[in-house]
């Protein structure tokens, strides 16, 4: 693997992955429609690495553009981040989510097949497990029923890729099921830049800490967890990004179709997140307990053993680094990339 097409490469996880790919001397081609990002993240990645990626502004649903990209570059593999990810929005606009995430991936795979590029790493999500029946979650457990169209779209793509592999075993497919990404590059130059009111916990906490939001709503304190608040497996975005480089090695080994959790194996509650963030940042995070958010599960964390055994990947950074790095990014870029 030398030359990698990264769809969604200017987004949150994509930008951190592109940085590591450039550092490791891959040739990187990015396709992004900037629906949730801009080229500013790439400018900063290029500054940090001293290397350049080729950027195409456009959509994975655009077959002509895909054709141009695959004709213009000898691509060895694709890391496919592009997609929409806001759970609430997906409930309001399901067709938009199925079109972007499912049809978009289908269109990408068609172009890949036409050009004989049959290596792909796909951004899946722990959401495909549905409401966990046992914890920690391992990859052999059956998938469940995601509670929203976003989650369904991830499960549909997993199923589609499995069928694709069954029909043509020349494909090498790594499904990476991310748990809860958090943190930012330690430089403070790149990080998560959500549009409007953040849906996810960590960006909400950092915006409360800067004073941009008055308080954090803690969605429910009556779950069956040690302190009653929701428990999740937060993973540093740099560790997550590194998982993709390991997945590329797996593609080179002719993996077939394989599925890995990318998580730490350790769950933290919402209140533990608040306390740890306060400690790492020195800022107060006022909060109020509010009713549960619909569709939330009590607890969700990974069994990360398989990725350790088969990819040689483990998460190295802990909650302290996630909190410190998120704070450095948010406090030095209060308006994100704008
Ligand atoms: P992000 O929104 O920051 O990045 C996605 C990128 O894809 C953005 O730059 C966006 O502009 C681009 N994009 C969206 N639709 C596109 C299209 N049709 N054509 C071209 N580009 C398009 O999100 P992220 O957090 O970096 O997530 C990356 C991937 O990982 C997504 O597929 C997401 O569903 C998945 N994922 C994210 C999380 C999370 O909590 N962040 C968890 C599990 C899985
Ligand atoms: C974490 C915990 C909330 C915000 C979602 C998607 C999942 C994946 C990651 C993409 C929960 C609580 C949150 C707030 C809170 N995305 N919370 N107040 O729900 O585990 O996962 O993002 O694939 O598919 O569902 O992450 O960060 O939204 O919530 O109390 O303002 O924080 O209830 O317990 P979640 P999250």
From TrEMBL:
The gene is galE. Keywords: Carbohydrate metabolism, Isomerase, NAD. Residues 5-325 form the NAD(P)-binding domain. Belongs to the NAD(P)-dependent epimerase/dehydratase family. One of its GO terms (cellular component) is cytosol. Its cofactor is NAD(+). This is UDP-glucose 4-epimerase. GO terms for molecular function: UDP-glucose 4-epimerase activity. Coiled coil: none annotated. Its EC number is 5.1.3.2. GO terms for biological process: galactose metabolic process. It is an enzyme of class 5 (isomerase). The keyword NAD applies. The keyword NAD applies. It comes from the Bacteria.
């Amino acid at each position: 693997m030398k030359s990698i097409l990264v769809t969604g490469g200017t987004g949150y996880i994509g930008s951190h992955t592109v940085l590591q790919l450039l550092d490791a001397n891959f040739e990187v081609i990015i396709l992004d429609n900037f629906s949730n990002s801009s080229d500013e993240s790439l400018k900063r990645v290029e500054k940090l690495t001293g290397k350049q990626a080729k950027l195409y502004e456009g959509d994975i649903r655009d077959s002509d553009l895909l054709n141009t990209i695959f004709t213009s570059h000898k691509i060895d593999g694709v890391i496919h981040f592009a997609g929409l990810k806001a759970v609430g929005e997906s409930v309001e606009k399901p067709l938009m989510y199925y079109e972007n995430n499912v049809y978009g991936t289908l269109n990408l795979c068609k172009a890949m097949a036409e050009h004989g590029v049959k290596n792909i790493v796909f951004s899946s999500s722990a959401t495909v497990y549905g409401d966990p029946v046992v914890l920690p979650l391992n990859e052999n457990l059956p998938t469940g029923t995601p509670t929203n169209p976003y989650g369904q779209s991830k499960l549909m793509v997993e199923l589609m890729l499995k069928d694709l592999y069954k029909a043509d075993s020349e494909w090498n497919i790594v499904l990476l099921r991310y748990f809860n990404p958090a943190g930012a590059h330690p430089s403070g130059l790149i990080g998560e830049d959500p549009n409007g009111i953040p849906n996810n916990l960590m960006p909400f906490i950092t915006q409360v800490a800067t004073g941009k939001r008055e308080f954090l709503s803690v969605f429910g304190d009556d779950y069956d967890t040690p302190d009653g608040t929701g428990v999740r497996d937060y993973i540093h975005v740099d560790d997550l990004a590194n998982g993709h480089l390991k997945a590329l090695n797996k593609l080179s080994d002719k993996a077939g179709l394989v599925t890995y959790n990318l998580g730490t194996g350790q769950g933290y509650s919402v209140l533990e997140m608040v306390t740890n963030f306060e400690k790492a940042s020195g800022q107060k995070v006022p909060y109020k307990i509010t009713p549960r958010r619909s569709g939330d599960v009590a607890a969700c964390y990974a069994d990360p053993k398989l990725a350790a055994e088969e990819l040689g990947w483990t998460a190295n950074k802990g909650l302290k680094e996630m909190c410190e790095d998120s704070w450095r990014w948010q406090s030095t870029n209060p308006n994100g990339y704008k």
